[in-house]
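Hey, quick one: can you model this chain's 3D structure?
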Amino acid sequence: MVFSYSLPSKSSSSPRVTLWRRLRRLGAISLKGSIHVLPARDECIESFQWLAQEVQQAKGEALVTRVEQFEGLADQEIISLFHKARSEEYQEIEAQAIELEKSVNLTANLEGRSSLLETLEKLRKQHTEITRVDPICH
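Sure thing. Here's the predicted structure for all 138 residues.
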């Protein structure tokens, strides 16, 4: 599925940043500029449709399209882009988990342990979000 959008140049950067964050959270990969791709699954289509409505509410234009293939870009290349994006996210979580593990050994008080548990729960949620959009997991 392809999502393409444009927002008015005179609008504040807030809608752009919000949209970028949502696309990232969905696991969309950017091929060129404002063209983003997700696998053709029902939840991906629905997510792009919601984003299109938000863009239109911000006085922009959005297009959600199903494509069979991209000219000059093999399916395996697109899949590799998804894998690369997820791999980077997994590596980021792993690095944070390693730092958390080091902190566990240094933190003896209850307050510090509570903070570590909160951080661990945050990492678990991030991991769940990544696996939700990871094409390998589906």
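One thing worth noting: The chain has two domains: 2-65, 75-137.
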